[in-house]
Amino acid sequence: MQQHTGEHIISGIVHRRYGYHNTGFHVGADVLTVDFDGVIPGEDLSAIELEANEALWKNVPLRCWIPSPEELPTVFYRTKRPLPWPVRIVEIPGYDRCACCGVHVAQTGQIGIIKLLSCVKFHQGVRLQLVCGEQALEYVQDIFEQNRIVSQTFSAKPLETGAAAIRARDALEGEKFRSAGLEKQVFASIAENYVSQGDVLHFADGLTPGALRNLADAIADKIHGIAAVFAGSDENGYSYCLISRCTDVRPLGKAVNQALSGRGGGKAEAVQGSVKCLRQQVEAFWAEK
Question: Distance between CA 146 and CA 157 in Å, rounded?
């Protein structure tokens, strides 16, 4: 009843402000969704939410009735199309009047609170996501608990966690930049060990796909053949990258996948993938290729 009546209030406000129709709604276990056939400006959402909650603070009594066949044509109510008698009208004075056969609270104050969560494009209009009443309280309690954890993690006051998160993000970006520079130096040092060699097989500890390619690139710049870098472990398998400045590596990549239970692909100059095998199997394949 709280969710349904809250939907009435929101739909009535949106209809009065923009003339949009409610084209569907769903009362979920966690949130309520309402669809409208027009676009609601994002900057208007706070005002819509405030007006909806003002309806609760006023504790407006609802009126539900079925007009007589003679009276019905004279009653204005929110509807997408004319309805034949009998029609049950549900009115929240000052906020909404529509045809509805559902259940509602007796007075708007029984809803407690209405909180809009999101507004996203949906078909030709928008979909609003909101919570009402007890559901809203549970949602806010969950958010508060999450923010408490964030507050403790960042050693920030509850209303300052956003700024703390931004500082942490900026610091992390700085560390990523510094780490990338150090990683480049390490890869260059490794590549120096293979200067002027032919094909090279190199094993590394766990690397991201990007780092794996960067290391293979650094080695390929120093040799006259194919740089094959494998990163991983016997337990979890290996990711690999094959790069050459002078040879099409796709045939070798196909052979790797067939011989070592792998998958992957790429272009003539570079192939990446993964294999499920032991290191000694990779080494044996490389020795026989």
Answer: 13
Computed from CA positions of residues 178, 182, 188, 191, in that sequence, does the dihedral angle turn out positive or negative?
negative
Contact 56, 111 (CB under 8 A): yes
**Alpha helix ranges (H) inside the chain:** 2-18, 45-57, 133-154, 161-192, 209-220, 250-259, 279-288
Q: What global pTM score does this model have?
A: 0.71
Measured in Å, how far apart are the chain's first and last C-alpha atoms?
A: 72
Nearest 5°: CA angle at 73, between 69 and 76? 125
Q: What is the 3-state secondary structure (H, E, C) of 50-101?
A: HHHHHHHHCCCECEEECCCCCCHHHCCCECCCCCCCCCCEEEECCCEEEECC
Above 90 in pLDDT, residue 206? Answer: no
CB of 199 within 8 A of CB of 226? Answer: yes
DSSP 225-239: SEEEEEEEETTTEEE
φ, ψ (nearest 5 deg) of residue 37: -95, 30
- The model's pLDDT over 261-273, given as tens digits with 9 standing for 90+, comes to 999 999 999 999 9
DSSP, residue by residue, 107-121 = BGGGG--EEEEEEEE
